[in-house]
Amino acid sequence: DTGVSQDPRHKITKRGQNVTFRCDPISEHNRLYWYRQTLGQGPEFLTYFQNEAQLEKSRLLSDRFSAERPKGSFSTLEIQRTEQGDSAMYLCASSLGQGSTEKLFFGSGTQLSVL
Amino acid sequence: AQSVTQLGSHVSVSEGALVLLRCNYSSSVPPYLFWYVQYPNQGLQLLLKYTSAATLVKGINGFEAEFKKSETSFHLTKPSAHMSDAAEYFCAVSDRVFGNEKLTFGTGTRLTIIP
Fold first, then answer.
1. DSSP per-residue letters across chain B
2. B87 near B109, Cβ under 8 Å?
């Protein structure tokens, strides 16, 4: 069990640029979640996948955000035309099974700074 | 929609003293409740969860929480604080509705242990 890994750990970009983050879940986990965390706040749900299907997207996720999970393995989160308000820690989590009670395993996150 | 409120963004206790971190929930249906801990530079880890079995739930590292429906509370306690407990703690709620299987987190409580 190598845990959930996220890449990169830190990303600094200029406003208007596109950025892409990658998440590698625990290998047998069928569910993958993306959360966003800003300073002083708890993680906020963005979207989740069951295998390759994106099942739910938060209203927080504007059309500048897109997430994919091809083949139900790793996932990418892309932000187009970044804005300063996108600066946050982006967290990925994975779990095994279905339903509301499974334990989520979180990665260490990608810290995005938009200048 | 479900939500949780964590009372006290910062809590300080002396080593060996009782730890009490407060969480109140709001949910239209009986909820599933969780406590996660975040150590510096690490991903969130599950401490314990309530899924409608016993109302007193024991977790890792000596923590426990009691579900009190009459008070809509799920406070986290530990009888004797250890220096290694210093971290940020998040209460979270998950609705039982199929298709709404995401966690909604509170804003977190930073626990400081005084030697």
1. --EEEEE-SEEEEETTSPEEEEEEEE-SSPPEEEEEEE-TTS--EEEEEE-SS-SEEE-GGG-EEEEEGGGTEEEEEESS--GGG-EEEEEEEE--STT---EEE---EEEEEE-
2. no
% residues pLDDT > 90 (chain A): 77
Residues of A with CB under 8 A from a CB of B: 3-4, 33, 40-45, 48, 55-56, 91, 93, 98-101, 103-109
Q: Which of B29, B38, B41, B44 to mutate to test the interface with A (most CBs of A within 10 A)?
A: B44
What pLDDT score does A100 carry?
63
Which residues share a beta bridge with A67? Answer: A77
A43-57 pLDDT tens trace:
999 999 999 999 888
pLDDT value for A14: 97
Q: Is B46 on the interface with A (CB under 8 A)?
A: yes
The predicted structure's pLDDT at residue A81: 97
